[in-house]
Write a structure and sequence with these properties.
The chain is an alpha+beta fold. The protein has five helices and seven strands, in the order βααββαβαβαββ.
Length: 164
């Protein structure tokens, strides 16, 4: 089983390294670049972003961004936010895809959330169309809610019954 470590992006060196993560051609329709994601984290600070690089040993293999504990009053006021804990971005570098790193990164995020108070549900969303990451999330155990936010299907993962 593939294992990874999540490392906070807290200064310029890890940020610069993460900017080298590349998508497979066509993924740009579904997953913004790391640079776009980092800018969105600044622009959407109301969503309480937490940003990590994904490492296999000392090799950078991906990028993860979550909403980390959006307060209930913020969720009630902003109908375009999903949470309080939301998988905002998961991007595995094109050179490292299909090796189990996406699942391993999700396992680490779920492990992090299990230690957080009141985290019995994990949320994410995915665009619709060819090459969408929806099947990946469904294999992991996420279930579509039937809700659409920002033209994306919303998924939930019940952490109280999840095998992960």
């Amino acid at each position: 089983m593939t294992t990874v470590q999540l490392r906070d992006i807290v200064n310029d060196a890890p940020r610069a390294a993460a900017l080298d993560i590349r998508r497979v051609p066509g993924q740009d329709r579904f997953v913004p670049s790391v640079e776009e994601s980092l800018q969105e984290a600044v622009d959407e600070a109301r969503a309480y972003p937490r940003i990590w690089s994904v490492y296999d040993g000392e090799q950078l293999v991906g990028f993860v961004m979550i909403s980390d504990g959006i307060p209930a009053e913020r969720l009630a006021a902003d109908d375009d936010l999903i949470g309080p804990y939301y998988l905002w971005r998961l991007l595995i570098d094109k050179r490292h895809q299909h090796r189990g790193y996406g699942t391993a990164a999700l396992n680490e995020v779920v492990g992090y959330l299990r230690a957080r108070p009141g985290t019995d549900v994990r949320w994410t969303s995915a665009a619709q169309g060819d090459a969408t990451p929806k099947p990946f999330y469904e294999r992991y155990g996420f279930v579509p809610t039937g809700e659409i936010v920002n033209d994306e299907v919303v998924f939930r993962l019940d952490l109280t019954s999840s095998r992960r």
